[in-house]
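hey can u check if this looks right to u? its 84 residues, i copy pasted from the old doc so theres a chance i mangled smth
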Amino acid sequence: MSEKLIRTGDVAASTGLPEGYIRRLARRGIIPSVRPIPGGSRYYKLSVVERALDIDSATLQSTEAQVRRFNESFNKISAQLKRG
């Protein structure tokens, strides 16, 4: 038996993420979705969404670490420039 398709709101409720974030990930192709009616509701398989979010979470954590390192370097350089 195939897995039931659920709507964006149900995905948001199941994952604790905002609906807008779920839609954005779907538009970017990170979370596969189907739209039986063009411009209509998106539908997802929860198991596929959960797998995609694991990948997205790892990517996000990596990006956040890069941003932290950049900010630390920037702050050090700024402090050095202020001291002369």
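The domain at 5-83 is CATH 1.10.1660 (Multidrug-efflux Transporter Regulator; Chain: A; Domain 2).
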